[in-house]
Specification:
This protein has about 130 residues and is mainly alpha-helical. Helix content is about 70%, strand content about 10%.
Amino acid sequence: MADQLARNRLSKALPKGMELSHFSVLNQLARSNAEKTPAQLARIFHVTRGAMTNTLNRLEWAGHIHVRPDWDDARRKRVSISPAGRRARDAAIAAIAPILSDTISEIGADRVRQALPVIREMRLRLEEDGGG
């Protein structure tokens, strides 16, 4: 329930036309600063390849990513963030940062810091059990 509420609130704050899945992919590409295959991105986000293809098609149409053939394996594609994608990601971070900051202030930074290791462990265990 908390996850749905958080996603809903953050989605509403994102720049017009951007979905949370778009921001997540742009953020991953920007943070890793490396090309990824669509299959790698699908694994990272625990979604089907079809769902990731849909997200990537929308991001490419918007000019936020570059998709190129893999020169070593023509069956694969490589995905990287474009300069426009970095700007869109930065705008999204600017839009959601106040929401996150306010929420952390209301809960208390110390309490959030204490909860993070538990949340990370839950995620890891769910991934191990095939739940993610």
